[in-house]
User: Fold Asparagine--tRNA ligase from Fulvivirga lutea.
Amino acid sequence: MKRTKIIDVLDGAKVGTQVNVKGWVRTFRNNQFIAINDGSTINNVQAVVDFNSFDEKHLKRVTTGACISVNGEVVESLGKGQSVEIKVAELEILGDADPEKFPLQPKKHSLEFLREIAHLRARTNTFGAIYRIRHAMIFAVHKFFTDKGFFNIHTPIITGSDAEGAGEMFKVTNFDLDSVPRTEDGRIDYKEDFFGKETNLTVSGQLEVETACMALSEVYTFGPTFRAENSNTSRHLAEFWMIEPEMAFYELEDNMNLAEEFLKYLVGYALENCKDDLAFLDNRAQEEDKAKPQNERAEMTLLERLQFIVDNEFVRLSYTEAIDILRNSKPNKKKKFQYLINDWGADLQSEHERFLVEKHFKKPVILFNYPKEIKAFYMRHNDDGKTVAAMDVLFPGIGEIIGGSQREERYDVLKAKVEEQGIPEEDLWWYLDLRKFGSAPHSGFGLGFERMIQFVTGMGNIRDVIPFPRTPDNAEF
Amino acid sequence: MKRTKIIDVLDGAKVGTQVNVKGWVRTFRNNQFIAINDGSTINNVQAVVDFNSFDEKHLKRVTTGACISVNGEVVESLGKGQSVEIKVAELEILGDADPEKFPLQPKKHSLEFLREIAHLRARTNTFGAIYRIRHAMIFAVHKFFTDKGFFNIHTPIITGSDAEGAGEMFKVTNFDLDSVPRTEDGRIDYKEDFFGKETNLTVSGQLEVETACMALSEVYTFGPTFRAENSNTSRHLAEFWMIEPEMAFYELEDNMNLAEEFLKYLVGYALENCKDDLAFLDNRAQEEDKAKPQNERAEMTLLERLQFIVDNEFVRLSYTEAIDILRNSKPNKKKKFQYLINDWGADLQSEHERFLVEKHFKKPVILFNYPKEIKAFYMRHNDDGKTVAAMDVLFPGIGEIIGGSQREERYDVLKAKVEEQGIPEEDLWWYLDLRKFGSAPHSGFGLGFERMIQFVTGMGNIRDVIPFPRTPDNAEF
Assistant:
């Protein structure tokens, strides 16, 4: 008999029909009720066995984690929370799971423990939900941009250019590290390496995707990026995925509009398409909250936070206005900030961003027009001579979720900036070419995909929203 | 005025309305007709200027490659091949392109030359078409699997495991290559490296995605993979994208069914959604063919080849049957094959695959049940003791486009195989765990994305179907 996915059994199988279901045993109660999950949904189907009709030895193998196949009739369920269940006629064990050895017994496991068995954690409700939501968000990203006529561009992972300056890079090499080839004067002879030059893992596809933008108008990347930074925090990964749209003929305001529309679309898509998984995670977060002291509990539940994003306009605030608000704020006057805000030009810290978003406005905030000194070389100089057309989108609980800017499209201005920053022109000749031949105003931004998944799932540690996290001293599996 | 994309002007703008169009000048004929392209479609919009109404100096800047913005009225076109054109009222130069310096003048450029200016080649018709088709195929991949309830899993790019054995790997390191840390006994001290161990770039996400398959049932990867192999051919890249679905409860036949359905879906999607780009590439290929001697010309046009895939059932042929056919074939008897087929067990070469697909069957072929000696350790042993449940899909002109298998789900059989091949168990403990706890029959395959794009676009060199190709001695941009 052809297998029916559990999501389809629960959501439409007719009472009285015969079905085959395959999946993993979550629990087996009273030698009678098997809860089976196949990952198609967070919900289990209940398979009811008449233990008199089955060999006892056979039933003993129905343990948590075992993989089974059952044939039987769909019948109305008397149990709570499910409309139908399966009356088992045949039961086959596809793969045993020795209860003495299988680590995922039906009890609460810590997230730390589950990270050590990342190859099995997708079998828990929490990680099943996270991965299904992660998939929905991947698809939503592509759908959003495809519907708008954007083109996805695969920018290179291995790069010979290290001009972006977004962070410390990993080296990629084919050298035998035991005997790195040397030139006659004793330096490393990169001509002997695979690519004939020094190469690294990309920190951003932005510069490369701009080349496609100057031909196809509206494009985006969605790929892995890397940072060789020794940040052992709940917010950093050495390998993470980033989405970077880049649009010709967009100025800063268009860029802000697109960023806001995009974030609302993703959150709305999750609310619409991941109801059961979000309900589970919402409940999970509320349970966790109960264990915390009153003043540390979240003001809103996960579902409320998501709905809040969809329902509210993001505040748009210039850096200059933000400095004014922060300078006159209570925590600044009472010296509660670690970094006090005195002068225009100060780099904003996470504490300041959180104050603006969580205390002052209680809404997502888009900060724009930052001092040029604290932003990247490719951002467009504003006419005031002091600021660049940069923007950051700040989310409650997460901080910066998107960073972007209008790009400097004027050849002379960009060239001066490149020289001022001491970037060798041979690294960026092709990027400068875009301004030499048919330049146009254009803008773009970057969304850290895992930060977004953290926000949508409510997970506190970024290592729990990517299947196999890479962090300092950890590249297991 | 809000910009209208050229695709929308050509496909629906009402005669008499005012529009703004922005894009790059392709040609400017007779000081009157500007062909503008914005990448939203391969088609240009014609903007007609009355040269008496514009300053001559201004019009001189309307050169091939310049970026311009025009406002004007949509009028019926008298020219061939276009229904509407724009009567220009205002014309702004956004970015000049000095005709003495801009490398993309309106003439035929060689693909080799265009590879050297990969940052500009998206502005040609050929590469615009390829990148738009590449995007359509990316979206089609996600849509195909999403519609079936598969989940996309991001498997790691940096891996501490090198057990897959699909090819030579690139090293990833944070060491200063000038002074690699050593242990007391003089060996490289990988404990001092970023991840505390040796790490490489992945050659395949298969082993990792199997962990998700054993929880969510139907999953797929779509990400970059790497080979540090010194293959300077038109078919190899050091960095390429791969799609690897993995399905619980699928046996080999289910796997073949899915592969065939998937390939037909992708080709059908391109035929349906990329008509103009495919028509251009079809024509381009026919023009190229005309320059070839009669006997080297393609038997079918690009569009015919694509339609042929959609319309025909793939031949399914066991390795054993294939050997029989090859052994008795004309080229074997006449010793035209470079590698003659004598005995069962021979590894098939590209010449044999092409004979089966292009000469014998004249159809795509799925070969299955290969000798176990020539296939990977994780493939399921058949009961005959000689073969494994492997399959390769062979396409005309391309050869192997998909490779896959049913996986060995039996712990003891797999463990013996791992030991036999001398793979250290500490590298694969987690992969073996999947067979220890709740194992299930499962299958999967890998599709090289660039090979697929080559087939769909008809491009002969794989370096022309990825924006920034990485090959030996080349990591430019």
